C-alpha cells in the first residue's frame, strides 16, 4: 500500500514532464525506500528513471501485498500509466505550487486505479482517479561507473548551452578531448548546408565541476529527452553528471541529492562508416 504527501509539488510535476518526453506511458513503482518513476521509448533507445526517497514526502506509507496494511490500500506490483492521463494533473507546475496546499497519492488495486488528490486554496479539492495496468518491473542495465569520460556541470550552464539549438534540432553531437568540450549540431551527409543553421559551442574544462576525459570521443544523441531532464534539474538546482564512452555506446545524464536521483540513458549513433549502423539500445 502507498500513501504520499509531497514536500515539493513543482519538482514532482517537472519529473512527470521530463518522463513524458521519453514515452507515452510510464511505470509507477513504489518500494519501501521511496517511489520510482520509469519510462522507456518504443525503440528502447531512451530510458529514464526518477527516484524519490521516502524523505522527499511529508508522509510515505508502503506495505508489500503479502503484508497488508489495514488502513491503507495495496499496490501489489509496479503499474503502468498512460502519460496523457497524468499530465493534466501537473499541467502548470508553477501555478500548482501557488494554489495547491497539499497533494496526495493513494492506490486502489481492487479497482486498478491510482488517486491523485489536490487540496487547493479556499477548500477546493480536485480528485483524479487514473486507471493503471499491472506490469513487470522495468530496469535498464548500464554500468555508468565503467565509462572513461565523466563530466559534471551545473544544470543552468548546460541549459544555457542547449537554448542556442533550435527546437527543430533533433540530435546533437558531444565531442570531448582533454582540452575542450564541444556541443554541435548533427547533420546528415546529404544535408543542404546553404539552408541549414549549424550551431557549435565550446567549453573549457574549467567550466565544469568535475572533468575526466579518459578517451577522446564524439557521441551523437537525441536532444528532446535531454531538454526534459534539464527542465527538471533546474527545479532541483542539482548539477548534471554525464557518463559516456565512444560512439555507439549509451550516454547517461544523471542528477542526485539526498532526496532524489534521476538518470536518463540515451543511445548514441554508431560511426557512419560502419555498415548498417544502428544505435545500441539504452536498455
UniProtKB/TrEMBL annotation:
<keyword id="KW-0539">Nucleus</keyword>
<dbReference type="GO" id="GO:0008311">
    <property type="term" value="F:double-stranded DNA 3'-5' DNA exonuclease activity"/>
</dbReference>
<protein>
    <recommendedName>
        <fullName>Cell cycle checkpoint control protein RAD9A</fullName>
        <ecNumber>3.1.11.2</ecNumber>
    </recommendedName>
</protein>
<keyword id="KW-0269">Exonuclease</keyword>
<dbReference type="Pfam" id="PF04139">
    <property type="entry name" value="Rad9"/>
</dbReference>
<comment type="similarity">
    <text>Belongs to the rad9 family.</text>
</comment>
<dbReference type="GO" id="GO:0071479">
    <property type="term" value="P:cellular response to ionizing radiation"/>
</dbReference>
<dbReference type="GO" id="GO:0006281">
    <property type="term" value="P:DNA repair"/>
</dbReference>
<dbReference type="GO" id="GO:0000076">
    <property type="term" value="P:DNA replication checkpoint signaling"/>
</dbReference>
<dbReference type="InterPro" id="IPR046938">
    <property type="entry name" value="DNA_clamp_sf"/>
</dbReference>
<keyword id="KW-0227">DNA damage</keyword>
<dbReference type="GO" id="GO:0030896">
    <property type="term" value="C:checkpoint clamp complex"/>
</dbReference>
<keyword id="KW-0597">Phosphoprotein</keyword>
<dbReference type="GO" id="GO:0031573">
    <property type="term" value="P:mitotic intra-S DNA damage checkpoint signaling"/>
</dbReference>
<dbReference type="InterPro" id="IPR007268">
    <property type="entry name" value="Rad9/Ddc1"/>
</dbReference>
<keyword id="KW-0378">Hydrolase</keyword>
<comment type="function">
    <text>Component of the 9-1-1 cell-cycle checkpoint response complex that plays a major role in DNA repair. The 9-1-1 complex is recruited to DNA lesion upon damage by the RAD17-replication factor C (RFC) clamp loader complex. Acts then as a sliding clamp platform on DNA for several proteins involved in long-patch base excision repair (LP-BER).</text>
</comment>
<keyword id="KW-0540">Nuclease</keyword>
Amino acid at each position: 500500500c502507498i500513501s504520499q504527501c509531497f514536500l515539493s509539488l513543482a519538482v514532482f510535476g517537472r519529473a512527470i514532464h521530463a518522463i513524458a518526453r521519453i514515452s507515452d506511458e510510464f511505470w509507477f513503482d513504489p518500494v519501501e525506500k521511496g517511489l520510482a518513476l520509469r519510462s522507456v521509448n518504443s525503440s528502447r533507445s531512451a530510458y529514464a528513471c526518477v527516484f524519490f526517497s521516502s524523505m522527499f514526502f511529508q508522509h510515505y506509507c508502503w506495505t508489500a501485498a503479502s503484508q497488508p496494511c489495514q488502513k491503507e490500500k495495496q499496490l501489489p506490483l509496479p503499474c503502468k500509466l498512460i502519460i496523457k492521463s497524468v499530465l493534466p494533473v501537473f499541467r502548470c507546475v508553477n501555478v500548482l505550487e501557488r494554489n495547491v496546499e497539499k497533494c496526495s497519492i493513494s492506490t486502489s488495486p481492487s479497482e486498478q486505479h491510482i488517486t491523485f488528490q489536490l487540496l487547493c486554496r479556499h477548500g477546493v479539492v480536485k480528485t483524479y482517479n487514473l486507471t493503471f495496468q499491472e506490469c513487470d518491473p522495468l530496469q535498464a542495465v548500464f554500468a555508468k561507473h565503467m565509462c572513461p569520460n565523466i563530466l559534471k556541470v551545473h544544470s543552468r550552464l548546460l541549459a544555457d548551452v542547449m537554448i542556442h539549438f533550435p527546437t527543430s534540432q533533433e540530435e546533437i553531437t558531444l565531442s570531448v578531448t582533454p582540452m575542450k568540450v564541444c556541443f554541435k549540431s548533427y547533420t546528415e551527409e546529404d544535408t543542404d548546408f546553404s539552408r541549414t543553421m549549424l550551431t557549435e559551442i565550446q567549453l573549457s574544462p574549467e567550466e565544469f565541476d568535475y572533468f575526466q576525459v579518459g578517451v577522446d570521443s564524439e557521441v551523437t544523441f537525441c536532444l528532446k529527452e535531454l531538454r526534459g531532464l534539464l527542465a527538471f534539474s533546474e527545479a532541483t538546482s542539482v548539477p548534471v553528471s554525464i557518463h559516456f564512452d565512444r560512439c555507439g555506446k549509451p550516454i547517461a545524464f544523471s542528477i542526485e541529492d539526498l532526496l532524489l536521483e534521476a538518470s536518463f540513458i540515451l543511445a548514441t549513433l554508431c560511426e557512419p562508416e560502419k555498415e548498417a549502423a544502428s544505435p545500441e539500445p539504452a536498455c
